[in-house]
């Protein structure tokens, strides 16, 4: 099985040209000196969970942020590393494949070799299974040559995205020790990075000298927080899907007789659906977050879509395009409850054939109402992260069927009060999943992944453990990007839920998928245009992913409109505090000191109130 | 409904750049003089059907080929047209939407206006329904501006691809007369062009002065014969689909745990599947033509795929990609027979619910064996051309299910003689249909369609009726393209089949879809690599459709390898004959004359034998 990994392969003309593309490095990573400045100790984004997290991660919680600086920056307390003894690093594809993953390896390899040609990079083959089984190959120029700027994870392969059980963690540690690794880089999404943090903690506790670093690579775009603006792969996936959605919109408009229901990948969160909607302007997009916030039932949703179809029929329009995120099924309250019951029965060991008989009367009634194909899909075993097998549940077909039934009920010739007057409703369903995931990565994803690879090296030579490589200010050109690292524990939250009477449970600390921010600018942009999208068919076709000319350098719309740069602001705050210190030195006038005290007292009061749990608690993301 | 047609719309950056692209014209169409040379009278490709066709088309059968020449060519008997009175032309999207259709209109418009600014072009809105209802709009620069080099048919829209019943033909004629049209250009595939020929014949018979011209625009690539090398849209569709197939191949190779079954559009013929296989090198492609030629049953096919899966498992490979043309279901003998029975019951007016009860015992047994989802799909009403609703029949799911069942039977722990030793078989199914059809057209399709539009004008000013616009030598650069026109009747064949004992029926003459030539070079290329594709995973990723840089000017592989240029050879033969005439003039020596007679006698004998029905009959395509 492993024999094919790392084998150079034949490339098409376009792939060859892409293989020659060389991403730029931001100024802070250029040269052979690593300069790192540490910020304040971090806390958790959710203050209420801080205690739980700190207990679970005694060795790795509360570490400071790290900023990597240009060689020429004059920062007095920056740590300057000019000696680079040879190091040994391992890298593993842990999460699901996402375009750009290969470039993390390339960037890491280049940084390692640039600082000391005797350093070595080992890739674990076959993903986590290779890590556990100590199967690796040394990365070389030759091996990388046909994988630079290319899609997929086929250089090393992947298996499950889990390093969690004691056996798995011990096997990973044994593997790192056998290869005498100074560092282990884990490429993946929320699950893999949670596991990376746990691995770092266990390694630290066991005095294993391997440092663990995580890299945010997931097409879902849901590893998003104050430190992480977007993920490697998201840009490409949204561009490839938007092209296809736009093609379908053009098709709908040409024949004017079909409603297309398109389900998109993205797991629980609807980031992909939101971005694709902003790029291609379909008639409707149903975000899981909206549905969850409004507690819409499947019947409410059906009615909403039917009302839209009816309104369009009123304008003599019998076509349309509706986007549905694959996570929608878990956002619809009663379907989620049903899935939870099914999941509970799975855990109890009830066989698939017997599950339906053991459902509660309420869940059973819903289950029996659903069409057979969807029943079968709901009964599938859950994924490794306990969520339903979202890619296998054809929510788009369920909605299309329900809408068709409801529209037919509204036809005047079937009942007198018929409100839908017009042509027959025709639905065509699509799932845009695996056909985008293996795409050649966009220029942005190539750049982002390559630079993140470099950042991983800087983290390792700074001796940091349990950190994630971060780049902020991503919407600016590469030469304005800020590179740093944040402890993964600072991105964790703790889930609380009550199950049964008078018992309350708290979950394990984890990096949880970030949902679409319904107060964010990207969502606001969508809402502003929603009625025009619905009625006016202002479809937009960004076209196929380009590497030259217009669109080649485009970034995702949600990244461009959202005002992020948290790391930049953290640095700016530090500068203000330093300035105050600089002005109010011993020897300054009493008046200046009094003014400073008074001003700082009110600032402190204000921030204390804003940060109290009763004010909302959670730090804004 | 019509209010949206022809409305300028907002374009993305890439669309704007594409809208500025200007295809080149071959030398023969440059300038304002039209020079046309007529070849010999045409016959039908199928000599056996010639009589039937000539009887059905008394006014339009047997017309000569037409070649359009450069203004500077010295051909004594070429007709030279320098006067260009204002003309009025109508154009209608008739077939299914295919990328590049808008450029036919653009090219036609430019040619019309170049030769006389007072000439007018009218587009029928809403496709054939607009033609019947006399709904049209005048094409202007302004209307065209945002549709140049853009996908879809949304400038004018389309409805059904049929102009066939007496009412429809009469309505079309009334429409042409009401608008005082000198010409009507019909954009479509095999069905639409057959209808165009019929319309031309009826118009000629009724002394309606409108000339009818067909243009070969169909993504299926099945309007292929000695005059037509490829169709507008085929190149784009194959490129978009090949990108997606390649992405899936990369994905398969990254995780090594799924078999992907991908169904491709293309109707009855497998041209799209063949071309995509040549571009992306999936593990298997099942061509309908192979299946039909070998009379493989669905069980044979299942076994073939299972054997392949088993052979790969022997090499520790548990992933793969299998392409399936949508027309496959009609190529499998027993499924075709079942579909024919169902179709017969539809025609008899049997309702869908009662069909299964009225099937013959044999067909009923097969029907009951099939999974419920496919039964439902087989019962759908047939399309306007009497074929099954291929886009709705999920053959890929049927095969995946049958393969899974069979592989499970081969597992050793279920039966002692288990031959499949390895991991679980997992299938994921995809249908790549509507998401490619609305794509921005490739450069080739933009050029081809635009030049065809110009050719239509030349056909009309030459006064030709019932012709199709043709361009040959397409694999060479545009400046080597040969432009001409061939009577549509010369592309027709007559189908014969026996139904029931001692009765034989012949069908109506029609342009029939050309199937993949199993003796052709493209197919040979596939067969040469088939075992390597199957076992070695030599996937190739042509990448997303590019408009600049590598791949931007690529043409389809089947076009590039096939040795066509029939029209060029017809011209070359004429030159040889003229040369013989030139050498053997009255006054030449007796010896020369004797040699010429002897040589020509043997040539004539040879050709007579080769063209006799007993020798194979059909002209090679």
UniProtKB/TrEMBL annotation, chains A, B:
It catalyses: beta-D-fructose 6-phosphate + diphosphate = beta-D-fructose 1,6-bisphosphate + phosphate + H(+). The keyword Cell division does not apply. GO terms for cellular component: cytosol. It is found in: Cytoplasm. One of its GO terms (biological process) is fructose 6-phosphate metabolic process. Allosterically activated by fructose 2,6-bisphosphate. Its cofactor is Mg(2+). The keyword rRNA processing does not apply. Residues 88-399 form the Phosphofructokinase domain. Keywords: Allosteric enzyme, Cytoplasm, Glycolysis, Kinase, Magnesium, Metal-binding, Transferase. SUPFAM superfamilies: Phosphofructokinase (SSF53784). Pathway: Carbohydrate degradation; glycolysis; D-glyceraldehyde 3-phosphate and glycerone phosphate from D-glucose: step 3/4. It comes from the Eukaryota. Regulatory subunit of pyrophosphate--fructose 6-phosphate 1-phosphotransferase. Belongs to the phosphofructokinase type A (PFKA) family. PPi-dependent PFK group II subfamily. Clade 'Long' sub-subfamily. This is Pyrophosphate--fructose 6-phosphate 1-phosphotransferase subunit alpha. It comes from Ananas comosus (Pineapple).
């Amino acid at each position: 099985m492993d024999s094919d990994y790392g084998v150079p392969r034949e490339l098409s003309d376009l792939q060859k040209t892409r293989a020659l593309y060389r991403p730029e490095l931001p100024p802070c990573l250029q040269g052979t000196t690593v300069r790192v400045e540490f910020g304040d100790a971090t806390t958790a984004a959710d203050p209420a969970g801080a205690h739980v997290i700190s207990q679970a991660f005694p060795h790795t919680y509360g570490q400071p942020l790290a900023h990597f600086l240009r060689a020429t920056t004059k920062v007095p307390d920056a740590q300057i590393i000019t000696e680079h003894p040879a190091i040994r690093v391992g890298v593993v594809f842990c999460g699901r494949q996402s375009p750009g993953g290969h470039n993390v390896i390339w960037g890491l390899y280049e940084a390692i070799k640039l600082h000391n040609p005797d350093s070595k990079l080992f890739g674990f083959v076959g993903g986590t299974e290779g890590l556990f089984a100590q199967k690796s190959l040394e990365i070389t120029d030759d091996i990388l040559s046909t994988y630079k700027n290319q899609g997929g994870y086929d250089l090393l392969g992947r298996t499950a995205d889990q390093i969690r059980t004691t056996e798995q963690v011990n096997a990973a540690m044994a593997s790192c020790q056998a290869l005498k690794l100074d560092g282990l880089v884990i490429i993946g999404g929320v699950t893999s990075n949670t596991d990376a943090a746990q691995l770092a903690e266990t390694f630290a506790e066991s005095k294993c000298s391997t440092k663990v670093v995580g890299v945010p690579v997931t097409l879902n775009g849901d590893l998003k927080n104050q430190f992480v603006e977007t993920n490697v792969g998201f840009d490409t996936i949204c561009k490839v899907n938007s092209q296809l959605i736009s093609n379908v919109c053009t098709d709908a408009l040409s024949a004017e007789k079909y409603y297309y229901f398109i389900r998109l990948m993205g797991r629980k969160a609807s980031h992909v659906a939101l971005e694709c909607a902003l790029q291609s302007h379909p008639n409707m997009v149903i975000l899981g977050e909206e549905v969850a916030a409004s507690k819409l039932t499947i019947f409410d949703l059906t009615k909403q879509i039917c009302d839209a179809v009816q309104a369009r029929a009123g304008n003599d329009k019998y076509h349309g395009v509706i986007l549905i995120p694959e996570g929608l099924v878990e956002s619809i309250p009663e379907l989620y409850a049903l899935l939870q019951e099914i999941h509970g029965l799975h855990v109890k060991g009830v066989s698939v054939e017997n599950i339906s008989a053991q459902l509660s009367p309420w869940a059973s009634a819903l289950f029996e109402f659903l069409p057979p194909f969807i029943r079968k899909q709901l009964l599938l075993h859950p994924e490794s992260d306990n969520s339903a097998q979202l890619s296998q549940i054809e929510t788009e077909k369920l909605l299309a069927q329900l809408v068709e039934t409801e529209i037919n009920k509204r036809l005047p010739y079937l009942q007198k009060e018929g409100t839908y007057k017009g042509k027959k409703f025709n639905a065509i369903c699509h799932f845009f999943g695996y056909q985008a995931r293996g795409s050649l990565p966009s220029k942005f994803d190539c750049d982002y992944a390559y630079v993140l690879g470099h950042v991983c090296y800087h983290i390792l030579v700074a001796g940091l453990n349990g950190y994630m490589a971060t780049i902020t200010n991503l919407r600016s050109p590469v030469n304005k990007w800020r590179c740093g690292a944040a402890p993964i524990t600072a991105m964790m939250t703790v889930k609380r839920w009550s199950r049964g009477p008078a018992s309350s449970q708290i979950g394990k600390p984890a990096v949880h998928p970030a949902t679409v921010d319904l107060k964010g600018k990207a969502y606001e942009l969508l809402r502003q245009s929603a009625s025009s999208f619905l009625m006016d068919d202002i479809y937009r076709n960004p076209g196929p992913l380009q590497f030259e000319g217009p669109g080649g350098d485009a970034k995702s719309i949600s990244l461009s409109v959202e005002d992020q740069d948290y790391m930049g602001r953290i640095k700016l705050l530090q500068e203000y505090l330093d300035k105050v210190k600089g002005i109010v030195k011993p020897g300054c006038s009493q008046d200046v000191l009094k003014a400073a005290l008074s001003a700082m007292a009110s600032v402190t009061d204000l921030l204390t109130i804003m940060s109290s749990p009763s004010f909302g608690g959670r730090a804004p993301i």
